[in-house]
Specification:
475 residues, alpha/beta, 5-stranded parallel β-sheet, 14 helices, 22 strands, binds flavin-adenine dinucleotide
Length: 475
Amino acid sequence: MFRRNFLKKLSLATLGTLGGQMIFSPYIFPFFKNNFNNQMEFSQENDLEDDAEKTSVLVIGAGMAGLSAARTLKEEGFKVTILEAQNRIGGRVATDYSLGFPMELGAGWIHGPEGNNPITPIANKAGGKLYETNDQSIEFFDENGKALSDESTDKLYKAYQKMIAELEKKYEDKEISEDISLADAIKKHYPQYANDAFMQYQLSAYAEFDAGGGLNDLSAIGWQGDSNFPGDDVILTNGYELVPNFLAKGLDIKLNCKVSEISYDKTGVEVTTSKGKFEADYAVVTLPLGVLKKNIVKFDPELPTEKKRAIQKVGMGKINKVALVFDKCFWNPKTQYFGYCSPVMGMYNYFMNTRTFCNINALVTFGIGDFGLTLESHSQEKIKNDIMNILRKIFGKNIPEPSKILVTKWNNDPYTYGAYSYCAVGSSLKDFEELGKSVQKKLFFAGEHTSRKYRATVHGAYISGQRVAKQIIDL
Ligand SMILES: Cc1cc2nc3c(=O)[nH]c(=O)nc-3n(C[C@H](O)[C@H](O)[C@H](O)COP(=O)(O)OP(=O)(O)OC[C@H]3O[C@@H](n4cnc5c(N)ncnc54)[C@H](O)[C@@H]3O)c2cc1C
């Protein structure tokens, strides 16, 4: 997603930054409690007109896909009820305020905010303050914390670009067709880069972070097959949650309503939840791919074999974030990002500086690819110490300890089980289409993982909700 955007537009002469993204963790309950109250208001705002004659739809999940579908269907006169397992809405758009600034636990960026990106106008209407993060503003450091010269980074950046473009072309021209991982393709065709630290950094911070999966899991054929909207990425400095909150206004949302079974036949759907059974004419299923993979929700009858296969084949990414707040700013407050050639692939290899858009001294770093999963088995103390060791190498031994830390654990989050979907070895772009196919014209599937073109993004989720709403309206 934004990484590819970045690579395309980055001027080699002014070799600059990365984009970034954000978080989720168990430490955010006070905030979600607040949010829960807001949601109660959403339900109470629901109009009281007699709904008995309307065609009814149950929407499972109040993330961007579910809210998008529900809002449009309600506007078209359908009776819509959203069933949401958590005590908040937004799903993977979740803002935490406990650190003194709006920390995005999940999505942070509106990627490509121009053109027809539907999120930008919603963010504007919702009162979002958009801030363009400057991708060119980055300082790079080697494994020992020594600043890298523009010359050497420039050279390797060109080599990286060339390698990725060549590989893509070889697959396009059918010169190679083997369905192997990106890691294996690089080892085989570009063995000279196997031990180059800066190349490994780029493969993690650009390829893995962009696509979501680890280098060993990404399909060398399909990992790049999605599209972008134009424009430089922006964040909402007053919180991304404004967007789902805006969409949720006036909708009937049942919170703490965990779905365990979805039955369907020609006459309609019946959904079993922790708050009892609900019936309707149709259901929109926006359960995240990670949840579908775990078979936690039973479908009766079972889903078609092709869909079940696609659920298993498409990958679910393992990105996590760690935010550290300090009493003092010991880095350049004007630099947007710091890149670090970590000896462990994906381990805290870049840092986003919040001082460019707020007055809190915070650095947000990431666990990417396989390390995104490993991080979740580490104690908070170990996570802090590992990051501080890196920061001491870069900024000196006398930097202060952080006063606050926040760690996300998306891979063990029971309502997501992962970060965002990617094209894994053995899967193809067609599998994303399969994930979005309706079943017996009763179950309609939306969610970021059902968007072949814009998977893994907020706009992809939103657009998928629009797609299923139209399918139901057109029946
Ligand atoms: C760390 C991270 C960083 C990201 N960064 C960006 C970014 O910068 N820009 C960007 O565009 N995208 C980003 N994304 C991706 C983006 O957040 C997602 O693509 C998008 O929000 C997914 O929306 P969705 O509606 O498909 O799923 P979700 O938001 O996950 O919604 C699904 C809903 O279903 C609910 N649910 C789950 N199980 C049940 C159940 N049994 N019963 C009832 N409800 C259930 C969940 O609680 C959730 O509310 C990021 C994601 C992560 C995790």
